[in-house]
Amino acid sequence: MNEVRALLRFSALLSLIVTVSPLSAQEMSLGLPAGTPLPVQLGKHVPMKKGEPLDCRLLYPVYAENTVAIPAGSVLRGSVIALNPDRSRRVHSRLWGDFTPFHIPVVHFDEVVLPDGTVQKFVGSNATDGAPVLHLSTPASKKSNSFVARQFSHAKQTAKDAVAYVTAPGRKDRLVQLLYRQLPYHPERIEAATMWTVTLDQPLTLNEPNPSGDVKSTSTVASTPVPKSGPKGTSPAAVKAEDKSTWHLTAYLQQTISSANEKKGNTFEAVVAEPIFAQDHTLAVPQGSVLVGTITLAKAARSFGRTGKLRFNFRELKFPGATSQKVKGTLAGADSSKAQKLQIDSEGGVQSQPQNRVIVPVVLTLLAGRALDNDGNFAGNAAVASNGFGMIGRVVGIVSGSTYVAAGIGFYAAGLSVGERWLVHGQNVSFVKNTRIEVTTVPGRSTLPAPTSKPIPTERH
Q: Measured between alpha carbons, how far is 159 from 53 in angstroms, rounded to an integer?
């Protein structure tokens, strides 16, 4: 009798294991769809050469079904697979006496290392848009100054930057790079803090994802942190009507928008990257919701250094499996290449940072005139005056023994400076596809009807 009972208990236990195992396996996996962006950043300088291995860190957490699937800080492994010629930089550098054959690296990543050491293979796209990134944010509202006041302000900022250049940490490396830029040829490298946005070419299933409660998100835009255990089956309709706090959403643009070709009234979309929870821990905005933006101002760049302008807002938010809701949204921040030198005004408009168009040409002109001084120290005056064409220009200016040659090289540099600031075509404002933006939105007065599709899960354990 005891043996029969033991056999029955074993059969019941085996049946329970068979029944529960598929559910447990299902709960322990998260899927990322194809097209999911993975923004990564290089931690240190590496040589610019084909085959160079790269270890980059994920800048922001990646969510799947409103759960952290890949935490921020996870390491992505890849390599440089090709070097494309950087023609525009080559032309500009040669005008200043630098004949280095500059390249644009093409990189490919295929492994992600999670914080627990798990290595996950994935199929991702190649990336060529690498550049050190500056996070833009809206400044405090302030009155616009006159042209003279702006130039004086730029001069003060330039002086502060010059002091920081030789006093801030890393000055030895900066000084070495400054010396390199004076040479007619120097080694290339991929700069630290270069960022690429890699997208998944195929869906990725994470077999052992880390629970979101164990990961501290580095994002600063979520209105409330993701709770360790949230109510299941919640939807946007579950948010109480009196919960009207501002939503700070992060999203990825689904197309490139530029002041060069956009028109007023054009629409575009951005997919919400991180879920937002209400104060009562109900899901307010699911990850994967879609913001619909509208261009309100687009002014293309023009000649004589006149830069482009771009302004847009958001008036609609589409939830997964639910109807749309009207919102009032403005741009509060964005990731942008430092080379673009963009800025966001207090109303969310984007344009290029105003550069100093007077001080630098004037200084170079005055230095060029030093070669014409008759104080007996020709070599010193020629070295100071010959600022054009890098080290080659300085050597030619000193060796020539002619004040006019040295002064001519200096005036050449002043002329280039004037051309770059006053005569060239201005820069357009562009945000490429998968640019991460921050949007401040205020929900509409009415909540959405309950979705007809299955409820949106919040957490997996």
A: 38
DSSP letters spanning 84-133: EE-HHHHHHHHHTT-----EEEEEEEEEEE-TTS-EEE--B--B---EEE
**H/E stretch holding 173:** helix 171-182
What is the phi/psi pair of residue 170, to 5°? 90, 15
Question: Which pair of structure tokens corresponds to residue 279?
Answer: 């104060």
**pLDDT of 23 higher than 80:** no
Q: Which of 273, 283, 289, 279 is nearest to 232 (CA)?
A: 283
CB-based contact 154:359 (threshold 8 Å): yes
Q: Which domains does the chain have, with CATH numbers?
A: 30-197 (2.40.128), 219-341+427-443 (2.40.128), 359-423 (no CATH)
Distances (CA, A) of 28 to 49, 205, 213, 228, 459: 40, 10, 15, 16, 11
The long-range contacts involving 183-187, CB below 8 angstroms and separated by at least 24 positions, are 183/98, 183/390, 183/391, 184/97, 184/98, 184/99, 184/390, 184/391, 184/392, 185/98, 185/99, 185/100, 186/98, 186/100, 187/47, 187/48
**C-alpha–C-alpha distance, residues 328 and 349, integer Å:** 15
The per-residue pLDDT for range 66-108, each reduced to its tens digit, is 999 999 999 999 999 999 999 999 999 999 999 999 999 999 9
Higher pLDDT among residues 357 and 336, named by residue: 336
Q: Are 202 and 123 in contact (CB under 8 A)?
A: yes
Neighbours of 43 (CB within 10 A): 14
DSSP tag of 423: I
DSSP for residue 303? S
13-27, 119-133, 316-330: which has the minimum mean pLDDT? 13-27
